[in-house]
């Protein structure tokens, strides 16, 4: 990692209780995030990849305490996020923001776009209509929209424009870290690159850090400094981008990369990933990936591998390596 550590997450867990039957008895827990540790440096982009349902969104929301953690530590600029009260949490959320996949989810259809953006500013104590109008206009310009678009309503905009507005809203309080949760997945392919370029321009200009969540490895390769792979609530591999794409070690990462011809490392075969992601309600014993692994060994169903550093900055949790 380059630069000072800004965000540090240690052994973070988010379990959802599942109830059933007439008495709504507890019948188990969904371990959506099950012991994640990671760090993000100032101005760094950490790409987070994994299949749908592996816990990426839950991880993002729990880091911001939009979901309450079940266990674990979250430190942002050395502030203990887990213990913050409401007021301090609000301050924190100015500095650490989330952009969702679906731009509509962050925009109220009954509010003008300008009011939606201003709302984020008002929550943080900025008042005075002249100053608010001015800030909103500058934010709209920053994301490549006309400064007078603030008077319009969300339905007047295309998906790409709405995502620009969502980004403007996230930028309102000059954040240091943006958790971007598949911010272009819901957009037409033709506008995806524009939004990605916008996010990277803003990063260059403002020195922002991102946790960039995506299931698209070519996107992650384009914009990340480091890459983390998640599987059933856990990080199974994490490395600097160059090392990650040159020397993927975890069989799951191998399989993900081998599925894309342009990303398959030289001399490696295509690996077909079979079966679905098992349920986080009842994850397989031992290594969670063993039921789908092409290099499975007897130990894998018995003992859960630890995430261990096996080369500088390259962490992997797999019995092949430790
Ligand atoms: P991803 O973003 O990687 O697709 P999610 O974080 O959305 O994955 O979901 C991880 C797991 O947690 C899934 O099995 C999902 O069904 C479950 N989950 C997410 N949110 C909730 C919730 N509010 N209540 C119960 N289960 C949830
Ligand atoms: Mg998600």
Provide structural commentary.
By secondary structure, the protein is an alpha/beta fold. It has a domain at 5-95 and 175-248: P-loop containing nucleotide triphosphate hydrolases (Rossmann fold, 3-Layer(aba) Sandwich). Helices cover 30% and strands 25% of the residues. It has an 8-stranded mixed β-sheet, sandwiched between helices. Strands 2-1-4-5 form a 4-stranded antiparallel β-sheet. Helix 3 runs parallel beside helix 5, helix 4 crosses helix 5 (159-171) and helix 5 (159-171) runs parallel beside helix 6. The longest helix has 18 residues, at 189-206. The chain is globular. The site of magnesium ion (MG) has 3 residues, from helix 1.
Outline the secondary-structure elements.
Layout: E1 5-20, E2 25-41, E3 45-49, H1 56-63, E4 71-76, E5 79-80, H2 86-95, E6 96-99, H3 113-123, H4 129-142, H5 159-171, E7 177-181, H6 189-206, E8 209-213, H7 217-223, E9 226-231, E10 234-240, H8 241-246, H9 251-258, E11 308-311, E12 314-316
Parallel strand pairs: 3-8, 3-9, 6-7, 7-8
Antiparallel strand pairs: 1-2, 1-4, 4-5, 9-10, 10-12, 11-12
The site of magnesium ion has 3 residues, from helix 1.
Question: What descriptors fit this protein?
Answer:
322 residues, alpha/beta, Rossmann fold, 8-stranded mixed β-sheet, 9 helices, 12 strands, binds adenosine-5'-diphosphate, binds magnesium ion
């Amino acid at each position: 990692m380059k630069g000072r550590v800004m965000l540090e997450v240690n052994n973070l867990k988010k379990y959802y209780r599942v109830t059933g039957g007439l008495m709504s008895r507890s019948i188990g827990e969904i371990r959506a995030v099950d012991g994640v540790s990671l760090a993000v440096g100032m101005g760094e982009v950490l790409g987070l990849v994994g299949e749908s349902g592996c816990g990426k969104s839950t991880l993002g929301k729990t880091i911001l305490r939009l979901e309450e953690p079940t266990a674990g530590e979250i430190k942002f600029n050395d502030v203990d996020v887990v213990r913050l009260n409401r007021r301090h949490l609000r301050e924190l959320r100015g500095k650490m923001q989330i952009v969702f996949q679906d731009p509509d989810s962050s925009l109220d259809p009954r509010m003008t776009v300008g009011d939606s953006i201003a709302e984020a500013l008002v929550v943080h104590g900025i008042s005075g209509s002249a100053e608010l109008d001015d800030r909103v206009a500058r934010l709209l310009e920053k994301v490549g929209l006309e400064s007078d678009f603030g008077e319009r309503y969300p339905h007047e905009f295309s998906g790409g424009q709405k995502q620009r507005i969502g980004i403007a809203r996230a930028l309102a309080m000059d954040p240091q870290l943006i958790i971007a949760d598949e911010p272009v997945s819901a957009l037409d392919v033709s506008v995806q690159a524009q939004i990605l370029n916008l996010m990277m321009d803003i990063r260059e200009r403002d020195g922002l850090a991102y946790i960039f969540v995506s299931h698209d490895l070519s996107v992650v390769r384009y914009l990340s400094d480091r890459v983390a792979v998640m599987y059933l609530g856990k990080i199974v591999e994490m490395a600097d981008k160059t090392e990650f794409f040159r020397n993927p070690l975890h069989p799951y990462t191998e399989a993900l990369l081998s599925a894309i011809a342009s990303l398959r490392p030289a001399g490696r075969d295509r690996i077909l990933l079979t079966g679905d992601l098992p349920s986080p309600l009842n994850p397989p014993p031992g290594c969670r990936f063993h039921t789908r692994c092409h290099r499975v060994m007897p130990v894998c169903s018995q003992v859960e591998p630890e995430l261990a550093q096996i080369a500088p900055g390259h962490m992997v949790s797999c019995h092949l390596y430790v």
